[in-house]
Write a structure and sequence with these properties.
10 strands
């Protein structure tokens, strides 16, 4: 058995995304078919909690939409630059204690960007710098979410299909090992659409940060409860 979160959009400004941890049968192995069995089991268990329909967002998704919305595949367009995946934009914008940003990662494949050795050998991430614009490292998922929101807003057809779902999963995401999750970013996009905030968030970074934290200019010493204020976690 395993426990993984389903990310549920909340149409209020107190908790934009709720995480509901679902217990389900896990099918071990690296084969795509095994992952898809686990996805089916998780979604069936989530349905018992009243969450339906659910979209798996990953390369393992059984739906084409879910595969296209993977951060490895979802493309972001920036004036004066070649289109890049959300994954490449995120990895290439990290500024470390001993280097970065490694902007050459903007133009490689997503898997090459994720596996670049410099990301593991340059110390801790202290901030992000994307196309000359700095972004704080706290709240911890804010930069990744912002990139994903901007890319989704540029891909209107994909975004419109996303709005029909009540919950989102990423079978590879383990909250004990990772912080950023494309399924959570998708749920945030739906929530911001529901409350009519998405356009302002996309166009005003300062407003976005203030909206999700309650205040702007957070330091690297911001305590974890404040970092997680955006989300309402179920036990």
């Amino acid at each position: 058995m395993a426990k993984r979160p389903v990310f549920i959009p909340e149409n209020n400004k107190i908790s934009f995304v709720r995480e509901l941890f679902i217990e389900f049968k896990w099918y071990p192995g690296f084969a795509k078919t095994q992952a898809q069995k686990s996805i089916v089991a998780m979604h069936l268990a989530a349905k018992d909690h009243g969450i339906d329909p659910i979209l798996e967002i990953s390369s393992k998704s059984q739906k084409r939409l879910g595969v296209e919305l993977s951060a490895f595949n979802l493309m972001l367009k920036v004036e004066g630059h070649r289109p890049m995946s959300v994954e490449c934009a995120f990895q290439g914008s990290k500024v470390f204690e001993r280097g970065g940003p490694f902007t050459d990662l903007y133009v490689v494949t997503s898997i090459e960007a994720k596996k670049d050795s410099r990301l593991r050998n340059s110390g801790n991430v202290i901030r992000f710098s994307f196309i000359g614009e700095d972004f704080p490292s706290n709240p911890v998922t804010s930069f990744y979410d912002w990139l994903y929101l901007k890319a989704l807003n540029q891909n209107k057809d994909l975004a419109s299909q996303l709005l029909m779902y009540k919950g989102f999963t990423d079978i590879a995401f383990n909250p004990e090992k990772s912080l950023n999750c494309q399924a959570r970013s998708a749920a945030l996009f739906v929530a911001l659409n529901q409350i009519g905030e998405i356009d302002k968030v996309i166009n005003d970074k300062k407003y976005y940060l203030k909206l999700i934290t309650g205040r702007s200019g957070l330091s690297n010493e911001t305590p974890l409860p404040q970092q997680r204020r955006l989300f309402d976690l179920d036990p």
